[in-house]
Amino acid sequence: MKIRLLTVWLGLFNLLVGLNPAWGANFDAERAWQHLIAQCEIGPRPPGSDAHRECLKYLEAELLKVCPDVSRQEFLGMNPKTKET
């Protein structure tokens, strides 16, 4: 009984979510494609490389066009194989 009720509720939820045209209505596939092309033109971007920094600058500049509160969150990761940071 509980599974049947849960299935009904999930089905109704999915139906309501699918009926909301605002979700995804502003997606511009051509614009997304141009952003992808711009990043691919930078070339391989392994972390710490000049190309990686260039890509970060590109992404930051693009985000600043739509949101003035863009900030970076720096962190230090560790390679599990070499134990280097």
Which structural traits does this protein have?
85 residues; mainly alpha; 54% helix
Model description:
Helix content is 54%, strand content 0%. By secondary structure, the protein is mostly helical. It has a domain of 40 residues. The longest helix is centred in the first third of the chain and has 17 residues. The protein is extended.
Fold topology:
Layout: H1 2-18, H2 29-42, H3 50-64
Short description:
With 85 residues, the protein is mainly α.
Helical percentage: 40-55%
> What percent strand?
under 5%
Largest sheet, described in full?
Answer: none
Secondary-structure content class: mainly alpha
- Which oligomeric state applies? single chain
The number of helical segments is 3
Report how far the terminal alpha carbons are from each other.
53 Å
Residue runs with pLDDT of under 50 for 5 or more positions:
none
